[in-house]
Amino acid sequence: MRRVAIFLGSADGHDPAHAELAVGVGKELARRGIGIVYGGGRKGLMGAVADSALKAGGEVVGVIPKSMVEREWAHEDVTELITCDSMHERKALMADRSDAFLALPGGLGTLEEIFEVWSWRQLGFHSKPVGFLDAGGFWTPLLDALQGLVDSGFLAAATLQDAAVAPDLPGLLAELEERMRSTPRPAHGPEGAG
């Protein structure tokens, strides 16, 4: 695993543990020699993960639409800052530059991004693994809701099980690497697609 795309909040959130988590993730990925691809922001958890990785000597690639650069949201000090025209292009570039996808605490943008790459994997458009860093049980309510979709017949159980979930980064990286080795193919078809 050379690079991971990280989806996370552009705000800090109310709990200081979220920022501490982002800082720890940045440091640990840098220590392991794993580069970060992220949304290119300088504030919130996005800025925290980028700054900590850079401080630890890690590679950080930011991908951000020009309109956000014009609003002065971009982190100008990352290893590489890629500007693009749209959110669609941003997500495609992030996916292309990454070997796996990782969700840290965040809001609507984080959800939209991780769900998109997860659905792409489920549909067979890529085989890169998707994971949720469930520190402090942050993602547990969402994962429980997704189990409800399985129970209702709108999501294949294999698709839900295909997402790597762990409470700490070492455990999650191990899960992602296992999925990279085995390249499981989630169920396709109507029961898993919608």
From TrEMBL:
Species name: Nocardiopsis suaedae
Record Pfam families: Lysine_decarbox (PF03641)
Hydrolase recorded as keyword: yes
UniProt-listed Enzyme Commission number(s): 3.2.2.n1
Catalytic activity reported: N(6)-(dimethylallyl)adenosine 5'-phosphate + H2O = N(6)-dimethylallyladenine + D-ribose 5-phosphate; 9-ribosyl-trans-zeatin 5'-phosphate + H2O = trans-zeatin + D-ribose 5-phosphate
EC top class, as a word: hydrolase
Protein name per its UniProtKB record: Cytokinin riboside 5'-monophosphate phosphoribohydrolase
Annotated family: Belongs to the LOG family.
Top-level taxon in the UniProt lineage: Bacteria
Keyword annotations: Cytokinin biosynthesis, Hydrolase
PANTHER family noted in UniProt: LOG FAMILY PROTEIN YJL055W
